[in-house]
Amino acid sequence: MVALFKDRSPATIFWLFILSIVVHSHFFVDYPVVYTKDGDGLLSTFLKNYISVLSPAIVVFIYHGIVLLQALRLNFLFTGQRMYTKVNYLPAMVYILLTGVFTEWSSLSPALINNFLVIWLFAKAIHLYNASEPKTLIFNIGLLVGSSILLYHPSAMLFLFALFAVMVLRPFIITEWLVLLMAAICPYYFLAAYLYLTDSFGSIRFYLPHWGLNVPVVHVSVTFFVTIGVLIAILLTGLFYSQHENRKLVIQIRKNWTVLLSMVFILLPLPFINEHAGIESLLLWIVPVSPFIARGFLAPKTNTLPGLMFWALLALAILKNWQIVK
Predict the structure, then answer these.
(1) pLDDT category, 89, cuts 50, 70, 90?
(2) What is the rounded CA–CA span in Å between residue 152 and residue 146?
(3) Contact (Cβ atoms closer than 8 angstroms) between residue 259 and residue 81
(4) Helices and strands in the chain, H and E counts
(5) Are 193 and 156 in contact (CB under 8 A)?
(6) SS3 per residue for 132-159
(7) 2 falls in which pLDDT band (50, 70, 90)?
(8) Taking a C-beta distance cutoff of 8 angstroms, is the pair 142, 108 a contact?
(9) Where residue 325 falls among pLDDT bands split at 50, 70, 90?
(10) DSSP character at residue 49
(11) Residue 244, Cβ neighbours under 10 Å: how many?
């Protein structure tokens, strides 16, 4: 099966669509949940008021459409920037597989929608290395970060990622760091002005991230620990092959991979430092993780290891979502 997604043929997009249906085949009997939570951003309000009232069939269509679009956008970004030694659809394949690993990731949530901005943010960041107008680009990056936080509060950690990207891909220029900070604050500046003019400035606290130590509510079982173990093993495999493959790449591409790796570690603690956050917030994490895991599928000369990883992820998705093993 993995060989299908190593092909650069446009027909592979059809197989990605089929893969999404198979991974989330439980939607035929159990429609996706529209996940919302008070106080975690404007996206929850939007989903609660406009999406949760739609028929389940439409919600299924929206979910598959979002996942497929994000997978393809991520894939085209990495192949277009020559982050891999050859064109493939493996990042998209891995992204779709990962959305089914936890039942919380199979819901239509603010985190899922916010992944559009996470992918867009990385697409902007990798152009910092040779940007002709760096301050304009940095302002756009900061604006994306600020908008993302306003829409989904747990994504506030993306500001640390933006700082790291500027630090790695640009020489230290204090004005560029100030531009990033002002741009990130900009969405809240306009929000504060609107609330002040409408005499409701006191409600601004509902639009701010809430930090605090948090233990996500999860159903602890043998299957849960097996899932974590499989994810760690597959990610370590991808990171191992990344170290080998990086030697063949030019310095700019190596720095891009370094910036992406920083996003992996920055987003990992999301559910543990945001009050009331759950495993669903880690959907942001699969954006940087998918390209690394894809390297573990692409680099081996034989299909034995990639095949095992593919069927392991697919089996986890089916077992967890169909609740065959609890």
Answers:
(1) very high
(2) 10
(3) no
(4) 14, 0
(5) no
(6) CCHHHHHHHHHHHHHHHHHHCHHHHHHH
(7) confident
(8) no
(9) low
(10) I
(11) 10
pTM: 0.94
Q: What percentage of the chain reaches a pLDDT higher than 90?
A: 56
The pLDDT value recorded for residue 86 is 83
Q: Element (H or E) spanning 253, and its range? A: helix 251-267
Strand, helix or coil for residue 99: coil
Residue 207 makes CB contacts below 8 A (sequence gap 6+) with 41, 42, 150, 188, 191
CA-CA-CA-CA torsion for 306, 311, 313, 317, nearest 10 degrees?
Answer: 160
- Please check whether residue 140 is in contact with residue 187, taking contact to mean a CB–CB distance below 8 angstroms: no
Place of tokens 């948090």: 214
Instruction: Give me the long-range contacts of 227-232 (CB less than 8 A, separation at least 24).
Output: 227/101, 227/102, 227/316, 227/320, 230/312, 230/313, 230/316, 231/101
Question: pLDDT for 212-267, tens place per residue?
Answer: 787 777 776 777 888 899 999 999 999 998 887 777 777 888 899 999 999 999 99
